[in-house]
Design brief:
single chain, mainly alpha, Rossmann fold, two-stranded parallel ribbon, 2 strands, elongated
Length: about 90
């Protein structure tokens, strides 16, 4: 399920509440950001704590941002190399 941190909906707490209502008790958050900026250092931990406070039986795992995943970094480097942008 896709969730957003601000401005767009559904929010992460809305998604968590919906999934919890369906009986789901585990949530894996994979931030689709290139790096750990303010949203991931400040906003996301607060939202996760809010969800944990609302649903103590929810097991929440937060992964590193997708842009810091080795496979993604390798894919980006390969795409750049294919375009001839690396000298």
């Amino acid at each position: 399920m896709l969730a957003f941190l601000e401005l767009m909906r559904p929010s992460l707490p809305e998604c968590a509440a919906s999934l919890h209502g369906e009986g789901v008790r585990g949530l894996r958050v994979v931030p689709v950001f290139f790096g750990s900026g303010g949203h991931l250092k400040d906003d996301l931990p607060k939202l996760v704590e809010k969800i944990r406070g609302s649903f103590p039986d929810f097991d929440i795992t937060v992964e590193p941002p997708i842009g810091e995943q080795p496979a993604v970094i390798a894919a980006i480097a390969k795409a750049i190399a294919r375009q001839g942008l690396v000298r």
